[in-house]
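Try it yourself: sequence plus adenosine monophosphate, in.
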Amino acid sequence: MLTLPEACAAILARIRPAVAIDTVPLAQARGRFAARLLAAQVDNPAFDNSAMDGYAFAQRDLAAHDGLLPRVGESSCGSRPQTLQAGTAMRIFTGAPLPAGADTVVMQEDVEAEDGRLRFPRDVRLGNQVRRRGEDFRAGDTLYPPGRRLGAYDLALLSAAGIAQVPVWARPRVLVVATGNELVAPGTALEPGQIYESNRLATLLQLEALGAETVDGGTVRDDPGQLRALLAASTDFDFIITSGGASVGDHDLVKQVFAEIGEIGFWKAKIKPGKPVAFGRVGERAHFFALPGNPVSSLVTFKLFVEPALYAWHHGQAPVLELSATAVNSFRRTPGRMEFLRARLWSENGDMRAEALRGQGSHMLGPIRDTNGFIRVAAESAGFNAGERVTVLPLA
Ligand code: AMP
Ligand code: MG
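Structure, out:
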């Protein structure tokens, strides 16, 4: 049985990363992963300009003219100003080009009219309120390495850098299948022994949020023949993700079927919930995850294993955010596996607080309502008391 870091390392070592690239306009690149190093095409700012509405002048003229300069000319946004006449100040607006000959700006609130001239403060430093060309970034600077996932502000940065189209890794194709004789879709009445299926939807939607192209493989019965046929015919997916049947019960067939048609990397992780989880590869292209059927185990193993695997497939690295919080209740347990408790996190007086929610059974979905993160309990820990510091992993 592998520890969490060992299991993650085993996954990363076996990922065959994306090779196909799509080139897409910025507006379609949100959530996609850069496939090449992205470098700025221009300096930003592209030219020296004013940070304020005010007046531009040569700083040495202030001393020479006793802080009084006549106003001559104007520089507005999107235009090219005249050269500043020596011994004068030019009206200028935020973002407008600094005229040749000027090196300093004073905002209009600090300037007074006096006998047809402008009175400036005495102690203005050289370069005041001037945004320098290239002070943000320069043409050729690396903005993103390959593998970086691009969000709205990243795309705004690329737009400012003059990039219109971005090479991104083609989306992974992912098949999601639920297994279990007891599972039915909501909308039909339950027969004795049946339950409503819920993992497949959560998995599909989380994959879509990560930019994957999903195929809903539906629910299959715990029938090795049916499962083998489905999985063996699905090797042109990048990932196959199954739910249920991954443990050692008589009807837990998923692992056996994957072992027959593919190569298992590992099939147990020393975590709670989520111990019966298998990872491996089938054929030349597909990676598989056999996630446990218990809904909470499914959620935790998706976060811990599938998400990092998807980032790695895109040549990237999943973001990890671990914080320290004060527990507001106690939690006792037998040491052994690293444990993830569903928790409510909030901040109070500048400190993060964490409540281990009631109902940690891996079959209990109700507490998901209040869950916005996990408390991570170390393998050797016997739990914590209220007031102790704990490690938390916020969800988005
Ligand atoms: P398994 O991993 O197949 O042994 O299932 C463990 C538990 O999770 C059982 O109580 C199953 O009924 C339940 N379960 C399995 N698959 C799903 C699913 N897709 N949605 C909801 N519950 C499930
Ligand atoms: Mg089952």
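One thing you can check immediately is this: Helices lie at 4-14, 59-64, 152-160, 199-209, 224-232, 254-261, 295-313.
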